[in-house]
User: Which sequence fits this backbone?
């Protein structure tokens, strides 16, 4: 699959990852890091194939080369593994559950001014078993629900 045939949100995600790791020449020399930021784990063959498209003098890749490799890998990405990855980003203390303090830390890190009341409502919305925490199954259920309030 090529980059242009991906969903718009996937294209955006790939472009954002490239932007995080691009250098002054608008090329990426930390390809593995950029791919991992997408929740992708390139194998040696993927990296070898990519290196084969560069010259010895070239230590970084263009946005178009990065897009094509990421597009190939993102279509292989298992949706459950991407959900696991996303869950781990929210589960700051690695407890296996997302707490109010985890959510507050994420909001603060992102510079979002969200009231404690709204954060509590977010937890309540996802917390189907009523324990005040969001476990991985509740998180996946919330993230895969088509229609959210």
Assistant:
């Amino acid at each position: 699959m090529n980059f242009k045939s991906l969903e718009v949100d996937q294209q955006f995600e790939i472009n954002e990852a490239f932007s995080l790791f691009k250098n002054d020449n608008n090329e990426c020399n930390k390809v593995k890091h950029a791919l991992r930021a997408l929740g992708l784990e390139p194998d040696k063959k993927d990296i070898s194939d990519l290196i084969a498209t560069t010259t010895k003098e070239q230590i970084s890749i263009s946005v178009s080369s990065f897009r094509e490799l990421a597009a190939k890998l993102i279509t292989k990405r298992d949706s459950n593994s991407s959900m696991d990855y996303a869950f781990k980003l929210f589960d700051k203390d690695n407890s296996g559950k997302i707490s109010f303090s985890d959510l507050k830390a994420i909001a603060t890190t992102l510079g979002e001014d969200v009231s404690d009341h709204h954060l509590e409502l977010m937890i309540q919305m996802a917390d189907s078993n009523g324990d005040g925490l969001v476990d991985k199954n509740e998180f996946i259920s919330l993230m895969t629900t088509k229609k959210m309030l």
About this structure: The mean pLDDT is 82. DSSP finds eight helices and four strands in the chain.
